[in-house]
Amino acid sequence: MDHVGLKFSVFMIEILRFVGGVGLLTRDFFKELKGRFYWKLLSEQIYQVGMRSLPLIVITSISIGMVMSLQFGLGLEKFGGKMYVPKLLAVTILREMGPVFTSLMLAARVGAGIASEIGSMVVTQQIDAIRALGTSPIKKIVIPRVLACLITLPILVSIANVVGNMGGLIIGATELNLDPNFYLLKVLTTSSIGDYLSGFGKTFFFAFFIAIPSCYFGLNVKNGTKEVGIATTKAVVVSSILILVGDFFLTKLFWIVEKL
């Protein structure tokens, strides 16, 4: 019992340390946005985060759209409701599946990359060298990565929404025998700007949920290369949990805003 209590105490201390550390890193991020800005580093990170993630996002989005279209079609066919597949799929992708799955994919690819890259820089004392040269690691390391996530994630989600609905259209036309023109017309006429903005607005929060914890775990690597792997795992797990838990509260928030 004492052993379980000790483990629980250590777990709670880790959570408090993480919350405090992420809070301080977020404060430093906003504080150091002023002054000199490294545009070249930002453009490099936009390429690494956005362009290199695009093939992964396109493949997962079209697969999700095709699978969901098939599942909705098979379920609704029993009740003669196949014509509702375009509307259901479009709203589901725009509000939830597009932003959440794209963010989870980005957390797996980019979050892990950020944590391991920064962790390796800490181990090889590159961060200390940056400080010794009188430059802030926050400006050179953290700000370009966080801004790159904030810029690219909304764009990737917009692409995922279009590609996901295209996947649904392909299955609707080939497997569910729905007319492609009818499918497209239904998507365009039944989806509202509110559906799109509800999902799009979440992406800015999800970008923070990915970038800040990943930078935090990378910067806090202390015991050599072995801990780089642990920091990478923590970054992916914590980012994914924050995205999924945060999605509930953000959905509730946008639902309240839409009712005003």
Structure description:
- It is found in: Membrane.
- Belongs to the MlaE permease family.
- The protein is mainly alpha-helical and 260 residues long.
- It has one domain.
- It has helices at 2-31, 39-49, 54-77, 85-123, 126-132, 137-174, 180-190, 193-219, 226-259.
- Helix 4 (85-123) crosses helix 7 (180-190).
- The radius of gyration is 21 Å and the shape is elongated.
Please give the structural blueprint.
Blueprint: H1 2-31, H2 39-49, H3 54-77, H4 85-123, H5 126-132, H6 137-174, H7 180-190, H8 193-219, H9 226-259
Poorly predicted residue ranges: none
- Cα-based radius of gyration, to the nearest Å: 21 Å
Strand content: under 5%
What summary fits the major beta sheet?
none
What is the count of distinct domains? 1
- C-alpha end-to-end distance: 50 Å
Order of helices and strands: HHHHHHHHH
Shape: elongated
Helix content: over 70%
Q: Number of helical segments?
A: 9
Broad structural category:
mainly alpha
Query: Quick one: how many beta strands?
Result: 0
Integer average pLDDT: 91
Pfam families: MlaE
Keywords: Membrane, Transmembrane, Transmembrane helix, Transport
Protein name: ABC transporter permease
Transmembrane segments: 6-25, 46-68, 88-108, 146-173, 193-219, 231-257
